[in-house]
Design goal:
Blueprint (H helix, E strand, L loop, with lengths): L28 H23 L6 H12 L8 H7 L5 H22 L2 H5 L3 H28 L6 H13 L3 H10 L6 H27 L6 H31 L9 H21 L3 H11 L6 H10 L1 H15 L9 H29 L4 H11 L4 H12 L5 H16 L1 H8 L29
Helix pairs in contact: 1-2, 1-14, 2-14, 4-12, 4-13, 4-14, 6-7, 6-9, 6-15, 7-9, 7-17, 8-9, 9-10, 9-16, 10-11, 11-12, 15-16, 15-18, 16-19, 17-18
Pfam family, one: Na_H_Exchanger
Family: Belongs to the monovalent cation:proton antiporter 2 (CPA2) transporter (TC 2.A.37) family. CHX (TC 2.A.37.4) subfamily.
Main location: membrane
């Protein structure tokens, strides 16, 4: 009697004996991973150079590069896909990509100063709340339309939250790089945008934790409740146990002296341990790394040295792998027919309308000049990497199907792509604009010479 048997491919060995021994190095994990990293870095850097005249941030080139290397373009060639990105290598590639992403989220946390968020004025806080709530509500409405058309069978609660987060998120690291490239970080618009994006980022991660808790495989609501409660317990432990240790290390690293190597090793190990803890809880390893980055003391050289140690290798070498990992899951060919393309347009319009209109209206209400308010709307509409993280988690959790995933990736690409050209056209820092408040200089004797000391 014939029986159906599923034969699993043998796991890849780490290293080969070399081509002269009659072995193909691409059948082994290490040489194949090296080839993948070199190809991805070279390809995305070339795209970044091509897009430089359009003043696009590097994240755009990396997203486009990931999509082009996937089944949407070069991956249509079965030979290319099976040679360079075979299915058996995906575990190693995803592990490397997520390790790089883990440390990148630690970097994002390092750059995010909670004290600055606490000092955020009502103006930036109101803009941030509007930039989250209005698109989130529109995202909920859009999720109903998608569920009735291309997302049949998606679980309503997690799908609703994932759609809301996807449309309401602002990518803090991407926005920081756009503002730096446009030399707007020190302007009023730049400061408000950074403060509002920081608040938005923290709120988005909280909502994403909720979405992940709801998207667990268990149907029992008690499991989701336990996930959220243990997540809160982890946060309390991080603030009251881990933070004092980090504060002690920061105090013992005074200005003018090198930071001790074992302090750096201990901190990076803490990042991995926190990632392991949050992954065990069920809210993804990225949250642990992000929390450790936030609680690291920002005073003194300690945080700066950590940034220097990680900044070159992680964003430059490992992070592009995450975009390729996403690109390999994105097949633009799944968007076919008038209905699918119509839904793509609907999602893009909803995302842009919610962010830009919501932010602009509230900005005008808090006395920001109209031109600056429009600029803030487009700046807050940038998505990029953080959006891809949300979408990939939704895809891995089976909340988003292939078609919905592809539509949302293209939405993230479009909204980030239009940010720099429109901001450059709308907002000119050199333009004489109406000040937010009257600034006057009082002098006792008008006949004396005005002397200013500039440091």
């Amino acid at each position: 009697m014939a029986t159906n048997q599923t034969v699993c491919p043998a796991p890849m060995k780490a290293t080969s004996n070399g081509a002269w021994q009659g072995e193909n190095p691409l059948d082994y994990a290490l040489p194949l991973a090296i080839l993948q990293i070199c190809l991805v870095v070279a390809f995305t850097r070339t795209l970044a150079f091509i897009l430089r005249p359009l003043r696009q941030p590097r994240v755009i080139a990396e997203i486009i590069g990931g999509i082009l290397l996937g089944p949407s373009a070069f991956g249509r060639s079965e030979k290319f896909l099976h040679t360079v990105f075979p299915a058996k290598s995906m575990t190693v590639l995803d592990t490397l990509a997520n390790t790089g992403l883990l440390f990148f989220l630690f970097l994002v946390g390092l750059e995010l100063d909670i004290r600055a968020i606490r000092r955020t004025g009502k103006k930036a806080l109101g803009i941030a709340i509007a930039g989250i709530s209005f698109p989130f509500i529109l995202g909920v409405g859009t999720s109903v339309v998608l569920q009735a058309t291309i997302a049949h069978g998606a679980r309503p609660a997690p799908f609703l939250v994932f759609m809301g987060v996807s449309l309401s998120i602002t990518a803090f690291p991407v926005l920081a790089r756009i503002l730096a490239e446009l030399k707007l970080l020190t302007t009023d618009v730049g400061r408000i945008a950074m403060s509002a994006a920081a608040v938005n980022d923290v709120a988005a991660w909280i909502l994403l934790a909720l979405a992940i808790a709801l998207s667990g495989t268990s149907s029992s609501p008690l499991i989701s409740l336990w996930v959220l409660l243990t997540c809160i317990a982890f946060l309390i432990f991080a603030v009251f146990v881990i933070r004092p240790i980090l504060v002690l290390m920061a105090r013992r690293s005074p200005d003018g002296e090198p930071v001790k190597e074992h302090y750096i090793c201990a901190t990076l190990s803490l990042v991995l341990a926190a990632g392991f803890a949050t992954d065990c809880i069920g809210i993804h390893a990225l949250f642990g790394a992000f929390v450790i980055g936030i609680i690291v003391p920002k005073d003194g050289p300690f945080a700066g040295v950590l940034i220097e140690k990680i900044e070159d290798i992680v964003p430059g070498l490992l992070l592009p792998l995450y975009f390729v990992s996403s690109g390999l899951k994105t097949n633009v060919a799944t968007i076919k027919g008038a209905e699918s393309w119509g839904l793509l347009v609907l999602v893009i319009l909803t995302a842009c309308f919610g962010k830009i209109v919501g932010t602009t209206v509230v900005s005008v209400m808090v006395k920001v000049p109209f031109r600056e308010a429009i600029t803030l709307g487009f700046l807050m509409n940038s998505k990029g990497l953080v959006e891809l993280i949300v979408l990939n988690i939704g895809k891995d959790r089976k909340v988003l199907n292939d078609q919905t995933f592809a539509i949302l990736v293209l939405m993230a690409l479009f909204t980030t792509f239009i940010t720099t050209p429109i901001v450059t056209a709308v907002y000119k820092p050199a333009r004489k604009s109406k000040p937010y408040k009257h600034r006057t200089m009082q002098r006792n004797n008008l006949d004396t010479e005005l002397t200013i000391l500039a440091c």
